[in-house]
Automatic annotation (TrEMBL):
Source organism phylogeny: Eukaryota, Metazoa, Chordata, Craniata, Vertebrata
Coiled coil: 4-128
Protein name: CCD27 protein
Alphabetical keyword list: Coiled coil
Domain of life: Eukaryota
InterPro entries from the UniProt entry: CC-FHA_domain
Length: 196
């Protein structure tokens, strides 16, 4: 946004400069027209003089005026050439700045779109993380119930002692394996004796 504002300010400055130069050009052209009117007025003035005076005065005045007009014309042509060149350069600069402004806006639009996609992905991941947490809590709860059932089944057997404290998973498995082994041996004994 800052880059766009900066480009817009530069464009406004360049366009203001272009307007100022065009205004100066109009002033110079107006001055040239005024000179031409002055020359016409002088011409009219000399019409009332005698022929000889007219010729002499006209020749002198016209030579002087021609020199002045040529000098003014040369200066104005030079200024107009410089201003035309500057106008062309300013126009090129304004076009470049407009192109940069369009590119900057396009870039910002692409970044906004990318940010939106990233936010959507983040929302999806957050939702999946929540689902995973809920599933993990359910599994943990089921595991704890299953573990408690194993402990209860293992230590409710006749002759088994209550555990002294909190049991580790390995201790629970060892106790369960011991009961399974004992029951297997007992079953084998019964088979050997022929009992059902």
């Amino acid at each position: 946004t800052g880059a766009i504002s900066s480009l817009q300010r530069q464009m406004e400055i360049q366009e203001s400069e272009l307007r100022r130069i065009r205004s100066e050009k109009e002033v110079l052209q107006k001055q040239l027209r005024e000179r031409e009117l002055q020359l016409q007025a002088m011409s009219d003035k000399y019409c009332s003089m005698t022929e000889e005076q007219k010729r002499e005065e006209i020749v002198v005045m016209m030579e002087e005026e021609n020199r002045n007009l040529h000098q003014i014309l040369n200066e104005q042509e030079s200024q107009l050439a410089e201003q035309s060149k500057l106008i062309g350069e300013l126009q090129v600069t304004i076009n470049q700045m407009r192109a940069e402004l369009v590119n900057t806006r396009l870039h910002l639009l692409e970044e906004k779109q990318a940010q939106k996609e990233i936010q959507n992905q983040a929302d999806v991941l957050q939702h999946k993380a929540l689902q995973t947490r809920v599933a993990l809590e359910q599994i943990t709860c089921k595991f704890e119930r299953y573990r408690n059932k194993i402990i209860q089944a293992t230590f409710s057997v006749e002759g088994s002692q209550e555990p002294p404290g909190e049991l580790t998973d390995n201790e629970v498995l060892e106790a369960m394996q011991k009961i399974i082994n004992e029951r297997t041996e007992f079953q084998q004994m019964l088979k050997n004796k022929g009992s059902k």
